Amino acid sequence: MTGRVDTIAHYPAAGGPAPNPEPRHRALPWWPPLLAALLLAACASVPGEGPASAGREARGEASTPRPLRSPRTSAPVPLDLRANDVLMQAMGLIGTRYRFGGSNPQQGFDCSGFTSWVFREAVGLALPRTAADQFAEVGTPVPRDALAAGDLVFFRQGRGRIDHVGIYVGEGRFVHAPSRGGRVRIDVLDEPHWQRSYRGAKRALDSRH
C-alpha cells in the first residue's frame, strides 16, 4: 500500500468530479443588502400595481375587492360589490308587468314595490313601502352629478309629495316600474318628463336597516 486514498471510489458516479477539499471562502454574504432593497421596494409600491399584483393574479387572489382610485381625487374609493347585485336583480325583472300595489314578480310591481323587492332580494335591505317614505327615510342624499349605480332616484309627477322611484343604472339611465299598463323598463333621466319631475337621489346602500 502506498498510503494514497482514492476519493473517487466513495461516489456512485464513477469518473465524476471529486469534491473540492479546499475550505470555502469566507466572504461577506451578499444577500442581506439585496433583501433589504427588496423590502424597501415593496413598502414603496402601490397596492394592486406592478409585479406583486401580477403574482397575486397568478395565485388567484385578484378577485379580492380592492379600493379603486377616484377620477376626481387621489384618495381610494371603496368598491361596493353590492351595487352589482342590485343591478343584476333589477335587470332580471325587466319586462315584468306594472300592477298598483304589486310587490313581487308573480303579481307585478308598482314603482316602490319594485325597488323594495330588488334591495331585499339582492342585499337583504328592507326599504319602506312607498316612494315618499323611501325618499324621506333611506340612505344619504346624492347630487345628480355624483350618481352611482344602485342609487335610488326620485320624482314628483303631480303636485303632492314624491310619487315615483327608480334605480340608477349608470350613463344617465334608470330602471323602474313606470305606470299602469306598462312594464319594468329602462328610461333616460334627460327625457323631458323625467327631467321636469326629478327631485333627488339617495344612496340606499349607506343605510343600516
Features:
alpha+beta, six-stranded antiparallel sheet, two-stranded antiparallel ribbon, 209 residues, 6 helices, 28% helix
Explain what this protein looks like in three dimensions:
This protein has 6 helices and 10 strands; from the N terminus they run H-H-E-E-H-E-E-H-H-E-E-E-E-E-H-E. The chain has helices at residues 31-44, 51-58, 82-91, 111-123, 131-137, 192-197, and strands spanning 68-69, 76-77, 103-104, 108-109, 140-141, 152-155, 164-170, 173-176, 185-188, 198-203. The strands form 3 sheets. It has a 6-stranded antiparallel sheet. The longest helix is centred in the first third of the chain and has 14 residues, at 31-44.
Describe this structure in a few short sentences.
The chain is α+β, with helices and mostly antiparallel strands and 209 residues long.
